[in-house]
Amino acid sequence: MTQPAQLGKLGIPVSPDYMSFMAPMLMQGVEDFNEIEETPHNCHACGATVMARQAVTQFFPGGTVCCDDCTETFIYQEKVKAMKDYWDALCPRDFREMKKDHPAFNRQAWERIRTFPIDTSFVFLGESGMCKTFIALERIKHCILAEKTAKIIFPHDIEDLAQWERRQLVVDICRPQVMLLDDILNVGCGSEQMAKFVFNIINKRCMDRKTTIITTQLNSSDFHSSVNIFNNMSAGESKRIEAIVRRIREKFTPIDFDALSKPETLSEAKF
Asked: Domains in the chain: how many in total?
């Protein structure tokens, strides 16, 4: 005869109102829950026999309980659903619809990045069209699946901020456990004030040891030596970027996308 499935130490049922049965149970003054007699019930999901205590089942119409396996499945499904909702609210639609099985996906870069621990901070180097932003977002997605909070900052999110908005952003910058700063150096070279703002964002997250991913169009040689990404860059702009890049060199793991893939065509880059 098949043994009845157990429901866990406390016979916890699957229900979004989990706490609703705990309060009245405690109010009734149940001193030793384990001494309450267990009675057989059918798992609400799979129909297996479940031994549950009446103190649990009486607070649910029809005695709704589930076995351990179905409980774990339910909790996992609810977690995945919550993470998907979080991701959909965080990520722009264009990037949400991209697929890793597309021919233009930079598989070499992705496999390289996957070898690092989930809390690694990266700087993705390479020409435009190398799939840097999409792979950065895939990495962010994996961090969310590891139950980390996240934030994505694109250039247009910060380049027109008022001074008080910049101050507030710097104050709040370490709240997300993982952050993507997409193409941040192009914003940082625009003015001395903006360069200081970008430096403060990066520096504060480094000091707080928060996982950060930066994408840039700098190539590997420029990143590791003098910075001259644009032919028309002024001496002042180069100097401002140098200050930011020095900090990134100290704390971030560089991934050279130019060395890991051929550039996509414009149509391929759209996925």
From this structure: 2
| pLDDT on residue 122 | 96
E strands along the chain, which residues? Answer: 5-6, 38-42, 49-53, 122-125, 150-153, 178-182, 211-216, 253-256
Determine the structural domain holding residue 122 and report its residue range.
91-269
Q: Which amino acid is at 40?
A: P
Contact (CB, 8 A) for 122 and 255: yes
Rounded CA-CA distance 225/89 in Å is 39
**In the prediction, which pLDDT does 236 show?**
66
Predicted pLDDT at 74: 80
Q: What is the CATH number of the domain that holds 186?
A: 3.40.50.300
d(CA 65, CA 13): 4
- 84 within domain boundaries: no
Q: Are 71 and 46 in contact (CB under 8 A)?
A: no
10-residue mean pLDDT series, the chain (271 residues):
37 42 48 60 77 51 67 82 90 81 83 94 90 92 91 89 87 92 77 82 93 89 63 64 84 90 41 30
Q: What is the C-alpha to C-alpha distance for residues 256 and 109, in angstroms, rounded to an integer?
A: 8
Beta bridge partners of 178: 150, 211
In a domain, 193, yes or no: yes
Domain-ending residue, one of 71, 100, 122: 71
pTM: 0.71
Residue 79 lies in a domain: no
**pLDDT value at residue 1:** 37
Instruction: Name the percent of the chain in helix, strand, coil, to the closest 5.
Output: 50, 15, 40
